Amino acid sequence: DKVICSGEAAAKMAVEWLIALGHKKIAYIGDCTYESRYVGYYQTLLTHHIPFDYRYVHPSTQTEEEGNRIMNDILKEEDPPTAIFCANDCTAIGVLKSIKMSKKRGYHPSVISIDNIRESEHTSPLLTTINIPKKQMAHLALMLLLDQRKGEHKECVRIELPSRLIKRDSCSYSPY
Predict the structure, then answer these.
(1) Which tens digit of pLDDT belongs to each residue from 3-58?
(2) Are 158 and 126 in contact (CB under 8 A)?
(3) Are 2 and 158 in contact (CB under 8 A)?
(4) How far is CA 171 from its chain centroid?
(5) For residues 85 and 60, what is the distance between their CA atoms, to the nearest angstrom?
(6) Phi and psi dihedrals of 128, rounded to 5?
(7) pTM above 0.90, yes or no
């Protein structure tokens, strides 16, 4: 039995939001080894005929420290992206801290991520994120397990829950 929330669909939702805000230079920070969130990022760019630029892809171990370090490198670029899509909130928190500490005036890229962890509600600016319904997933997984142990079902069950965009302050319209 499986209870999932598609990382690919969540990534597509995030990148679609950035594109709707006018962004075309969208960076990705996260796992790049055929990870579903990376696939969603890549496919959404292709769908919208936005050229895929490897300069904007930053493989990461997806920690706050790594997000901070990668964003410090992005801040040194001559042609930085207008938006940053992070594969998880921890990475995005590091990105936001790096931007806040930066001395690069006038550069405020939009930042979006996935997970909607508690800390995402306390960043500055508040982090725009894709909510993964973790509590509902855990509840349904437990219910399936209990149901299976009682012998109530014998076939494999797969439940996919939808993700949801949480619009906050870290994303804005692209000035470019």
Answers:
(1) 999 999 999 999 999 999 999 999 999 999 889 999 999 999 999 999 999 999 99
(2) no
(3) yes
(4) 12
(5) 12
(6) -75, 130
(7) yes
What's the 3-state SS for 13-77? HHHHHHHHCCCCCEEEEECCCCCHHHHHHHHHHHHCCCCCCHHHEEECCCCHHHHHHHHHHHHCC
Q: Crossing angle, helix 36-47 and helix 7-20, to 10 degrees?
A: 40
Both tokens of residue 9? 């669909």
d(C-alpha 96, C-alpha 93), whole Å: 5
Q: Quote the tokens at residue 38.
A: 């990376």
Cβ atoms 42, 49 nearer than 8 A: no
DSSP 132: P
Q: How far apart are CA 35 and CA 32, in angstroms?
A: 6
Lowest-pLDDT choice from 72-81, 100-109, 117-126, 130-139: 100-109
What local confidence, expressed as pLDDT, does residue 7 receive?
96
